[in-house]
């Protein structure tokens, strides 16, 4: 049975999901695209470490000089949109989304809107009414802007939202926004997600349960 720790006795008005690594397994495609991009721009894999969960624009700005920014960003966007192979649902994702289908929920992703739409379509996920992408905010994760925008779109106080994330940058963004954070250790070690309220293996470890107009978490076993 999963120990729910500080989330055991809490309920929430809404759930905000990250997308890649949380709901959708796009890791093979992401790695292929960024590996190709890195080779083309003389970047080593080590140069890209610690940027997981950060929008492509933030990664490009961090590792290349300003004069290469526009062309380099356009190139990684092109590569990612061209590689949509092996896109699949993460464990427990379908059940989690089905559980909150009638409750306030949103997706806040570091993808561009075209890429998010493509990956959602291929994974069979219907985009929620509130979908926040990298194109919708001036500052992406680890800044709080994506989750603040999602909460605003839902009309709910960020403090009453549960964010589900797989990346340290996303957890940092959630906490900065004032949201509770449930982390899934699907793409990084659990120790790297220690800032979250609770870390689980993946969404199959818990159930989201609508109760009296709110959402609570239960152990799945």
Written account of the structure:
- The longest helix is centred in the first third of the chain and has 14 residues, at 27-40.
- The model has no long low-confidence stretch (mean pLDDT 93).
- Strands 6-5-2-7-8-9 form a six-stranded parallel β-sheet, with helices on one face. A three-stranded antiparallel β-sheet has the order 1-11-10.
- Strand 5, helix 5 and strand 6 form a beta-alpha-beta unit.
- It has two domains: 5-26 and 87-219, 3-Layer(aba) Sandwich (Rossmann fold), CATH 3.40.50; 27-82, no CATH class.
- Helix content is 33%, strand content 19%.
- It starts with 10 loop residues before the first strand and ends with a strand.
- The chain contains seven helices and eleven strands.
- It has 221 residues and is of the alpha/beta class.
């Amino acid at each position: 049975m999963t120990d729910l720790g500080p989330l055991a006795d809490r309920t929430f008005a809404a759930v905000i999901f990250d997308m890649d690594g949380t709901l959708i397994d796009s890791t093979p495609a992401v790695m292929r695209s960024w590996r190709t991009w890195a080779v083309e721009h003389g970047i080593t894999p080590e140069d890209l470490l610690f940027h997981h969960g950060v929008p492509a624009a933030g990664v490009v700005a961090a590792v290349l000089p300003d004069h290469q920014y526009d062309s380099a960003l356009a190139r990684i966007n092109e590569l990612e949109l061209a590689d949509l192979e092996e896109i699949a649902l993460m464990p427990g994702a379908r059940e989690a989304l089905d559980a909150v289908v009638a409750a306030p929920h949103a997706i806040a992703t570091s993808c561009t809107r075209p890429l998010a739409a493509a990956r959602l379509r291929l994974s069979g996920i219907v985009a929620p009414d509130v979908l926040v992408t990298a194109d919708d905010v001036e500052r992406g994760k680890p800044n709080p802007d994506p989750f603040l925008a999602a909460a605003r779109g839902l009309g709910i106080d960020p403090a009453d939202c549960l964010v589900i994330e797989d990346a340290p940058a996303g957890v940092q963004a959630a906490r900065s926004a004032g949201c509770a954070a449930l982390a899934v250790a699907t793409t990084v070690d659990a120790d790297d997600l220690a800032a979250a309220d609770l870390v689980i293996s993946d969404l199959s470890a818990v159930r989201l349960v609508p109760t009296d107009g709110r959402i609570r978490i239960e152990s799945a076993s």
